[in-house]
Amino acid sequence: MNNKIKIAVLDMNDNKPNQGLKNILEICEEFKSASKRKVTYKVFDVRYKCEIPRVRDFDIFISSGGPGNPHGDGKLWEDNFSNFLNDLWAHNQQKKKKKYAFLICHSFQMAVIHWGLALVNMRKSYSFGVLPVHKTEEGKKEFLFKNLPDPFFAIDSRSFQCIQPNEIALLEMGAKIQTLEKIRPHVDLERAIMSIRFSNEIFGTQFHPEANPEGLLASLKNKEYRDAMIATHGMEKFLQTLDRIDDEDKIVLTRAQVIPRFLKDSARKIMKERKAEKVQKAEKAKKTEKAG
C-alpha cells in the first residue's frame, strides 16, 4: 500500500516578503517529522512564476495568504488558480480518492468569489492584529476547532472582507460558515466571515492559523502593520497584545491546533481510502482466481 503523503504548498505572495509561507513550511516540516508515513512537500510560486500544481499529483494542498485585490486584474495566474479550484472540486465529486485543501486569507477570499458564496469588498480600514474569532453553531461542531475556546484568538491581516453570505449558493454547495469576526456592539457594520467549510475536504480561513509569535513580531517591524494594529486596538491594547503575544491560550494555541489537525486528519482519511482500495482489489483478485 502506498504510504506516501504528498503536499503542495501554493505560495500566493507574489514574490513579496511574508511570514505566512515560512510558518506554513514549518508546520509541514513538523508534520513530516512527527508522521509515521513518508511525507513530502513542494512549493508552487503561483503568482510570480505562474506555477500551479496538478490536482492529480498531490494529496493535500495548502494555499497561502498574499497581498492585493482578490478580484484580480486578469492575469494568467488567476485563471490558473480558478482552474485549480474547479479541478479540485470536480475530482472530489467524481473520484473515491479525495484530495484535501486548506485555503488561507487571500486564497480564501478568491475561493469565496469563485464560488459566489458572499460579497467580497474592501474594508474601511486595514485590519491587523490578534483578534477574537467567534464560532457559529456550525463552528462549535467543527473538528478543526475542537480544542479551541469560543472565542479563540488568531492573527487577522486584511484589506478586504467577506460579508453578505449568499445563502442559496452556500446551501447548493453544502458549504457552512464556521466563524465570524469579533462582536462590535457599537459599530453598525456587518461582521465578516472568518472561515468556511466548503466541503468535507476543503476548508478556508480569513484569519491566519499558521501565524506564531515570532512571525507577528517580525511583521510589526513593518510600519504599515504596526500602525494598522494600533488603529485597530488603540495604543493601550496594542501594548497589551505585545505583552500577551506568546500566551499559550491565544495564537500559540490556534497555530498548534488548526492546520496540524487538518494535516493529520487528511492523512488519516487518505490512508483509510487506500486501505479500502487495497482490500477491494484483493477481494476482486480472489473472485477472479476462483472463477478461473
Question: Your description of this structure?
Answer:
The chain has a single domain, classed as Class I glutamine amidotransferase (GATase) domain (Rossmann fold). 41% of the residues lie in helices and 23% in strands. The protein is built from eight helices and nine strands. Strands 2-1-3-4-9-8-7-5-6 form a nine-stranded mixed β-sheet, sandwiched between helices. Helix 6 packs across helix 7 (235-243). 40% of the residues are buried. The mean pLDDT is 92.
Share of residues in helices: 40-55%
Strand order of the largest sheet: 2-1-3-4-9-8-7-5-6
The coarse silhouette is: globular
Average pLDDT taken over every residue: 92
Tell me the fraction of residues in β-strands, as a range: 15-25%
CATH architecture, by name, is 3-Layer(aba) Sandwich
Q: How many distinct domains?
A: 1
Counting DSSP H or I runs of 4 or more residues, the number of helices is: 8
The major beta sheet can be summarized as:
9 strands, mixed
Structural class: alpha/beta
Listing every helix as H and every strand as E from the N terminus to the C terminus, the arrangement reads EHEEHEHEEHEEEHHHH
